[in-house]
Task: inverse folding
């Protein structure tokens, strides 16, 4: 109860009841109770109160005798509380005081009201008339808490010590094996610590039985080792638990590091294994747009698989960065090595994916340009295979211009194909740098041969088209020249017709005198020279059309009727010109003779002795007048007059007047001859 005798020894109370008391259980209970006090308290001895008021004498005697075997050295006094006047006769049969030497302690029989003779009332409970406050159930509950805490804390300390010591000794594998086997304690350290703190708080307050206002004597005070033992256990627990938390932290960090390392190796192994193998098997570039697109689609599937691992890489990189920022010095080297290894592999694989994607894109562009160029060459070849049947020179020029534009477009397309092909070849030549030792010469050779073959094929097709364009260009230029010659020849006919028309309509004057007529004659000859040049030019053009037709192996479209027209107009012009020359020459003779007659003086009559001159001039004048009224007759029988009738009448009137003057002159010369004989 916490009560003490006058020697400061603890008081042990054994309340007996009417029921049968088990000595074995009592012995165990006494052993437990006597194990509680400290050795110092035990040295002061115990005073045992055996409350036999509700028990039988033989039970009391058995209990007293049992004390000899259980606690003989610690018991100094045994007070047997007897019932009033119940055991007086029986006591005579067994005197405890006579057995003191054999028992080892003094036994007295005392009534409850007389216990105060041996023990102070303040050290006795109310059951024995004392004032000591004691609640057995409260003590029992607190003791159970204490025992539970002691048991759990002691077991927990052993477990934590095993875990902590196992982490400090042996090799890394031994530490990990020890931690793995004993990593989790059987109880929660936080719960045990909380229980201990609550228990210690109540022990320090020394209030186990609810006395109002006052502080009662605690049966679990310092002398009973409760408070110091709890404090010691709490200190040990805190120390071991702190170490345990550090071990857990290290283990968690190591586990996290191992998980990161495992994930890193998973990423690295996949990228360097299946991922790289996927890229190794994808070396082709396709032989057409559709094939390249199919390879691109396959590559996108590969990229999709890589993206999942790249996402893991990003997550791992963030975790490693976080550990580097908060990690210990001993982990920095390993973490940095993991991060560097992961980054190197991922960046290398990403570079390979990007290279492959760029290569396929370049191949797609190359095949696209090749297809466009092939279509252009097909269109150009189709245009060249169609025979040219233009309507005129302008359409030929337009066709020729279109042909040149197509050829220029083909040249540009071929140049673009060469540039794309060279760029693709350059990329293929760099493919060996990430082949992981795999010989890609054979695969690359097939790609290179395909690219060069496409470019050479396009070059040959373009060269053939160029040759055909040269032939077609020459033919079309000849056709342009043919049309030009035909047009110019037709123009020469028109010009000659215009000259003939001008000759007939405007070249009608015969001159007023011989000088003017001679001038007109000279102009006419020059006019004829122009017509002759025009005719010769037309003949040359027509001869050229014949040569061009022979070269083109075709008949001229219009030269067949141009030559007869040219010859017909020229013959008409020649006939008209000869008539014009004849009239002018006749006019020159007429004017010359007339002017000679009219300019002679009358004083020279001998000059006119020959009157035949007058007859001749009259004949010339009449002949000229007759010619003015006669049309020009062409070889085909057609007729044409010079000028209009009024123009011809004007020219004839001028000749008649001059003939009148000559006739008058003739009469004047005849009158003197008639008067001379008469005189």
Result:
């Amino acid at each position: 109860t916490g009560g003490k005798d006058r020697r400061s020894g603890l008081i042990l109370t054994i309340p007996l009841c009417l029921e049968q008391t088990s000595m074995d259980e009592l012995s165990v209970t006494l052993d437990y109770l006597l194990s509680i006090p400290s050795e110092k308290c035990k040295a002061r001895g115990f005073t045992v109160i055996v409350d036999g008021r509700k028990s039988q004498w033989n039970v009391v005697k058995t209990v007293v005798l049992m004390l000899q075997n259980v606690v003989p050295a610690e018991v100094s006094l045994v007070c047997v509380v007897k019932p009033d006047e119940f055991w007086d006769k029986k006591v005579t049969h067994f005197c405890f005081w006579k057995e003191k030497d054999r028992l080892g302690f003094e036994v007295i029989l005392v009534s409850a009201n007389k216990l105060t003779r041996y023990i102070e009332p303040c050290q006795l409970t109310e059951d024995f008339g004392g004032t000591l406050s004691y609640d057995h159930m409260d003590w029992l509950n607190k003791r159970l808490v204490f025992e539970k805490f002691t048991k759990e804390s002691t077991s927990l300390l052993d477990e934590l010590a095993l875990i902590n010591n196992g982490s400090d000794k042996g090799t890394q594998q031994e530490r990990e094996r020890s931690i793995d086997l004993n990593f989790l304690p059987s109880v929660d350290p936080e719960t045990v610590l909380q229980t201990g703190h609550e228990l210690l708080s109540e022990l320090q307050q020394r209030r186990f039985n609810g006395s109002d206002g006052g502080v009662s004597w605690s049966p679990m005070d310092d002398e009973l080792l409760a408070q110091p033992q709890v404090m010691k256990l709490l200190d040990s627990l805190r120390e071991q638990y702190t170490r345990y938390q550090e071990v857990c932290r290290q283990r968690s960090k190591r586990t996290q590091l191992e998980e990161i390392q495992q994930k890193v190796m998973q990423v690295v192994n996949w990228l360097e294994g299946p991922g790289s193998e996927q890229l190794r098997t994808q070396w082709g570039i396709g032989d057409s747009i559709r094939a390249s697109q199919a390879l691109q689609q396959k590559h996108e599937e590969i990229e999709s698989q890589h993206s999942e691992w790249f996402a893991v890489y990003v997550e791992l990189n963030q975790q490693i960065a976080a550990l580097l920022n908060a990690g210990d010095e001993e982990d920095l080297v390993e973490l940095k090595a993991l991060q560097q290894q992961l980054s190197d592999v991922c960046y290398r694989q990403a570079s390979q994916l990007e290279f492959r994607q760029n290569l396929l894109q370049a191949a797609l562009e190359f095949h696209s340009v090749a297809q466009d160029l092939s279509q252009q060459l097909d269109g150009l070849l189709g245009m060249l295979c169609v025979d040219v049947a233009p309507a005129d020179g302008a359409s030929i020029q337009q066709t020729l211009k279109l042909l040149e534009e197509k050829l220029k477009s083909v040249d540009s397309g071929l140049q673009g194909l060469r540039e794309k092909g060279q760029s693709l070849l350059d990329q293929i030549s760099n493919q060996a740098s990430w082949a992981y030792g795999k010989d890609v010469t054979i695969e690359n050779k097939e790609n290179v041969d395909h690219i060069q073959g496409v470019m050479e094929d396009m070059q040959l097709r373009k060269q053939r088209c160029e040759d055909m364009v040269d032939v077609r260009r020459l033919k079309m230029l000849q056709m342009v020249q043919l049309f030009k010659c035909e047009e110019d020849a037709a123009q020469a006919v028109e010009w000659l017709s215009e000259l003939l028309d001008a000759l007939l309509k405007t070249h009608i004057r015969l001159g007023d005198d011989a000088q003017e007529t001679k001038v007109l004659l000279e102009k006419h000859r020059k006019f004829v020279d122009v017509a002759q040049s025009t005719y010769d030019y037309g003949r040359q053009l027509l001869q050229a059309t014949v040569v061009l037709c022979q070269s083109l192996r075709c008949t001229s479209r219009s030269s067949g009727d141009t030559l007869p027209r040219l010859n017909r107009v020229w013959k008409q012009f020649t006939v008209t010109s000869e008539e014009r020359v004849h009239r002018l020459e006749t006019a020159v003779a007429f004017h010359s003779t007339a002017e000679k007659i009219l300019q002679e003086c009358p004083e020279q009559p001998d000059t006119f002795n020959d009157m035949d001159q007058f007859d001749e001039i009259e004949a010339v004048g009449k002949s000229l007048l007759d010619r003015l009224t006669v049309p020009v007759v062409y070889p085909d029988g057609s007729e044409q007059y010079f000028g209009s009738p009024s123009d011809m009448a004007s020219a004839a009137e001028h000749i008649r007047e001059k003939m009148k003057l000559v006739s008058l002159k003739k009469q004047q010369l005849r009158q003197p001859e008639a008067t001379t004989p008469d005189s």
User: Anything to note?
Assistant: Residues 207-218 have pLDDT under 50 and may be disordered. The two ends are 226 Å apart (CA to CA). The CA atoms of residues 549 and 556 lie 6 Å apart.
